[in-house]
């Protein structure tokens, strides 16, 4: 009696046989192949793909592409949820993309993200707020700018572009800040838009802060010392030149 022996060969799914979503999450593939899979999904807004891209935000190799794809697909809700992700890199990527939509309902979550303790998240959220071209972002920029700090100083810059009067009001308040960068940004704005009523305070700074001040306390140890007096003098000269 003949016995036929069949050898079962395991089926191996190659990358060519996989769908783009499967390749997106295949840890055996190199980052380039996985990124290519992500690009293949661009413009696809089906629920399964949106779900896959939302999960891909947690993967550093494809995070930027996944966030970009979600924005292109108009997937606002997954990006909003990502603002509370425990990974700061995910929060930062989401904040950056959300600003592109310029929707009024995103102003509040972006302003909250702009106060994130992680600098990358807060600056990306501020960049998102800065994408709004009209007055809708002004109250949020005012609130952020008043707090000073790196993100606050960036907010003051954008605020001054959108509403010079509002920027000047915040800048005048920041002259009393204990942080050197806050004072510098404030004097820059006051020099550009202030008037003779600002001269007494500027002259005080010019007279009393004659020594150079370093930025060791804010992580800029490699920066050269900053002279507040010189900055105050420059602001004074700008105002006097305008004759205001």
How would you concisely characterize the structure shown here?
The chain is mainly alpha-helical and 244 residues long. It contains 14 helices and no strands.
Give the fraction of residues assigned to helices: 55-70%
Distance between the termini: 112 Å
Q: What's the count of strands?
A: 0
- The 3D shape can be described as elongated
Taken together, the total number of domains comes to 2
Supply Rg.
26 Å
Please state roughly what percent of the residues sit in beta strands, choosing from under 5%, 5-15%, 15-25%, 25-35%, 35-45% or over 45%: under 5%
How would you describe this protein?
With 244 residues, the protein is mainly α. It folds into 2 domains: 19-28 and 42-132, Leucine-rich Repeat Variant; 141-244. Helix content is 59%, strand content 0%. The protein is built from 14 helices and no strands. It has helices spanning 20-24, 31-40, 47-56, 63-72, 76-82, 88-98, 107-113, 119-129, 138-146, 149-162, 164-174, 180-193, 199-208, 228-242. The protein is elongated and about 75 Å long. The termini are far apart.
Would you spell out the secondary-structure blueprint of this structure?
Elements (H helix, E strand, L loop, with lengths): L19 H5 L6 H10 L6 H10 L6 H10 L3 H7 L5 H11 L8 H7 L5 H11 L8 H9 L2 H14 L1 H11 L5 H14 L5 H10 L19 H15 L2
Helix pairs in contact: 3-4, 4-6, 5-6, 6-8, 7-8, 8-10, 9-10, 9-11, 10-11, 10-12, 11-12, 12-14, 13-14
């Amino acid at each position: 009696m003949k016995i036929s022996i069949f050898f079962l060969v395991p089926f191996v799914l190659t990358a060519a046989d996989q769908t783009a979503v499967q390749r997106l999450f295949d840890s055996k593939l190199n980052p380039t192949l996985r990124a290519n899979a992500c690009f293949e999904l661009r413009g696809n807004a089906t629920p399964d793909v949106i779900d896959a891209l939302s999960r891909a935000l947690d993967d550093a190799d494809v995070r930027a592409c996944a966030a970009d794809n979600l924005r292109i697909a108009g997937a606002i809700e997954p990006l909003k949820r990502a603002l509370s992700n425990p990974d700061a890199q995910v929060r930062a990527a989401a904040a950056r993309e959300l600003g592109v939509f310029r929707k009024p309902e995103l102003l509040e979550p972006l302003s909250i993200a702009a106060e994130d303790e992680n600098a990358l998240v807060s600056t990306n959220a501020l960049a998102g707020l800065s994408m709004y071209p009209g007055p809708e972002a002004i109250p949020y920029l005012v609130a952020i700018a008043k707090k000073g700090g790196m993100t606050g100083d960036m907010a003051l810059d954008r605020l001054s572009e959108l509403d010079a009067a509002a920027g000047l009001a915040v800048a005048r308040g920041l002259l009393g800040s204990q942080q050197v960068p806050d004072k510098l940004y404030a004097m820059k704005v006051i020099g550009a838009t202030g008037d003779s009523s600002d001269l007494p305070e500027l002259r005080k700074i010019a007279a009393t802060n004659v020594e150079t001040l370093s930025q060791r306390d804010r992580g800029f140890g490699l920066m050269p010392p900053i002279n507040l007096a010189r900055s105050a003098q420059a602001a004074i000269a700008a105002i006097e030149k305008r004759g205001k």
